[in-house]
Amino acid sequence: MDTAKNRDFDLSANAGASNIQLMTMALDASNSGVIITDHTQPDNPIIYCNKAFENITGYSRKDIIGHNCRFLQAQDRNQKEREILAHCIAEGEECRVEIRNYKKNGDLFWNELYMAPVKNEAGEVTHFIGIQNDVTWRKNAEHDLRQQKTVMEKKIRERTMALKDSEAFLSSIIETVREGLLVLDPDFNVLSANYHFLRTFKVSLEETVGRQLYDLGNHQWDIPKLRDLLIKILPTNNPVVDFEVEHDFPHIGRKLMLLNAYRVEFEGQFKDQILLAIEDITERREVENRKDDFLSIASHELRTPLTTIKGYVQLLERAMPENASQKFLSTFGKVSVYVERLNALIGELLDVSRIQSGNMELHMARFDFDAMIAEAVDGMRATVPTHNILLKGQTGASVVADESHIAQVVTNLLSNAIKYAPDSKQIEVNIANVSEYVKVSVKDFGLGMSQEDRKKVFERFYRGVEIQKKFPGMGIGLYICDQIIKNHNGTLWVESEIGKGSVFSFTLPKAGKEQHG
Amino acid sequence: MDKKKILICDDDEGIIDVLEMIMEEVGHEVMSVNDSLKVQEVIDKVQPDLLILDLWMPRLSGQDVLRQLRSHPQHDKLPVIVISASRDGEQIATAAGADQFIAKPFDLGNIVESVDALLN
């Protein structure tokens, strides 16, 4: 065996049997299926197949020797790859196709088939060699990928449409709101302005978008306070809410505006853009001021002639002759009482108006609580000498509240106590500290009130049983007291039993209201 | 008690009349102005010892009159009693430089006492 020593492979008839054996072993060791068909015989029968072919297809050698490979296609004969194969066979060319094949047990597998002709010395095709690889997994992966791609594209289309809808909706909202809205880039150029802005400030879109904010409408927006907001405040204080700006605009006049400003902080294409919302409160403020004016004017106008009447009555009293009759003196006394009543009525009316229009202004200040109580009690003692008002306890507290309003409450409770206890002449006032509050109780031993009265007694215009009309009141006194105490964040309540008298109590936070309004 | 010059400034004739009568009754010399625009002029001419001033007046408010007076070196020490019907009158009056605030409708006794106290 000369060729045994020669490492070159030689397929000629002189080649050693061991070489053939080695090559056969190599073929059988291959992972790819290999078949050889004889083109010289009719219908290209298979004359050789390797182990891998058997493994891939499930057919054994004896099953397929002599057959044409078309059996691999089973019933699936309509694949176009067959035409390619037929063409190559006819032309004696090599080709590569991916074709659907079926194993012996009927299972589908994808066959990557490489076919090449073997030609003799005359150039005629004698055999074909087919190399098969099972690429099912790859085909499946490719299919899945294509499917996913289709799903993704559909999702993207849907999302894009939804996004367009959102954008259109957003746009509609912005154009419909009743506030001016501006979007600025970080350099304060106007990126967009909504319809309300254009209409309020009488500018067009063309002369607004793309311009510097301060240049708009011939520098009418070059407002120092606005500059402060954008340059000094917004960088560190984001967002800014209820920023008041007043400006005299050349063509539209003086405007008072509340601004909200927000610098976009979230990442993305809108970062550092500035949103500016502008509310025109010029008219609203005017109406508020006018309301206030009306109340103030009403108060002044009503009290002025009353002052004069009171003055004249007092002058008359002082000018009373020595020998004036009792009738004279007592009549003057009565006039004084009714003058005071009218004054109190005016005060109550204005209080109620203020409460209703939300304008109850409290002037909070620190004062000596015990001193205020003592003064109110003394005042009542002087007015009604017939009753005995006992003051018990002390708080030693320095309280933050509207002193005159609280004094009004105390006086009102005292006069009620007297009014509803005409026969029993004893009134007790108790003051004490209760945690962070002061508490005041006014106790009378008079008529008391029913449960129904107790529930409604703080309502506006509610009157329980009336006996004496010695003191002024339209049934709004307790309503006002309740509102005053409530506005201080305290509480006012009554405990009472018919025939046994009543106790009106209220608490008042010593440190004043925590918040305004 | 010495006879002093009291000037009253209020846009209401009735109130001026009442105050004039009481001030005369207790023995003072009384003058009155019912147009706030003229009060500065009258003060310069008359040199009163005390001014009773209303807050709510048309064209020039009592508040502004008082502020002007207090910035005038000659009149910044003039005793002024402010009278007013509004509840925040006291705040405004004190802020503008009033020596005393009396709410309308006032008690004549109070007026007399306050005038007395400020003049002595």
TrEMBL record, chain A:
<dbReference type="InterPro" id="IPR003661">
    <property type="entry name" value="HisK_dim/P_dom"/>
</dbReference>
<dbReference type="GO" id="GO:0007234">
    <property type="term" value="P:osmosensory signaling via phosphorelay pathway"/>
</dbReference>
<dbReference type="Pfam" id="PF02518">
    <property type="entry name" value="HATPase_c"/>
</dbReference>
<dbReference type="GO" id="GO:0000156">
    <property type="term" value="F:phosphorelay response regulator activity"/>
</dbReference>
<feature type="domain" description="PAC">
    <location>
        <begin position="95"/>
        <end position="147"/>
    </location>
</feature>
<keyword id="KW-0902">Two-component regulatory system</keyword>
<dbReference type="InterPro" id="IPR000014">
    <property type="entry name" value="PAS"/>
</dbReference>
<dbReference type="GO" id="GO:0005524">
    <property type="term" value="F:ATP binding"/>
</dbReference>
<dbReference type="GO" id="GO:0005886">
    <property type="term" value="C:plasma membrane"/>
</dbReference>
<feature type="domain" description="PAS">
    <location>
        <begin position="19"/>
        <end position="92"/>
    </location>
</feature>
<keyword id="KW-0808">Transferase</keyword>
<dbReference type="InterPro" id="IPR000700">
    <property type="entry name" value="PAS-assoc_C"/>
</dbReference>
<dbReference type="InterPro" id="IPR035965">
    <property type="entry name" value="PAS-like_dom_sf"/>
</dbReference>
<dbReference type="InterPro" id="IPR036097">
    <property type="entry name" value="HisK_dim/P_sf"/>
</dbReference>
<dbReference type="GO" id="GO:0000155">
    <property type="term" value="F:phosphorelay sensor kinase activity"/>
</dbReference>
<protein>
    <recommendedName>
        <fullName>histidine kinase</fullName>
        <ecNumber>2.7.13.3</ecNumber>
    </recommendedName>
</protein>
<dbReference type="InterPro" id="IPR005467">
    <property type="entry name" value="His_kinase_dom"/>
</dbReference>
<dbReference type="Pfam" id="PF13426">
    <property type="entry name" value="PAS_9"/>
</dbReference>
<dbReference type="Pfam" id="PF00512">
    <property type="entry name" value="HisKA"/>
</dbReference>
<dbReference type="InterPro" id="IPR004358">
    <property type="entry name" value="Sig_transdc_His_kin-like_C"/>
</dbReference>
<dbReference type="GO" id="GO:0045121">
    <property type="term" value="C:membrane raft"/>
</dbReference>
<keyword id="KW-0067">ATP-binding</keyword>
TrEMBL record, chain B:
<dbReference type="InterPro" id="IPR001789">
    <property type="entry name" value="Sig_transdc_resp-reg_receiver"/>
</dbReference>
<dbReference type="InterPro" id="IPR011006">
    <property type="entry name" value="CheY-like_superfamily"/>
</dbReference>
<keyword id="KW-0597">Phosphoprotein</keyword>
<feature type="domain" description="Response regulatory">
    <location>
        <begin position="5"/>
        <end position="119"/>
    </location>
</feature>
<feature type="modified residue" description="4-aspartylphosphate">
    <location>
        <position position="54"/>
    </location>
</feature>
<protein>
    <submittedName>
        <fullName>Response regulator receiver domain-containing protein</fullName>
    </submittedName>
</protein>
<dbReference type="Pfam" id="PF00072">
    <property type="entry name" value="Response_reg"/>
</dbReference>
<dbReference type="InterPro" id="IPR050595">
    <property type="entry name" value="Bact_response_regulator"/>
</dbReference>
<dbReference type="GO" id="GO:0000160">
    <property type="term" value="P:phosphorelay signal transduction system"/>
</dbReference>
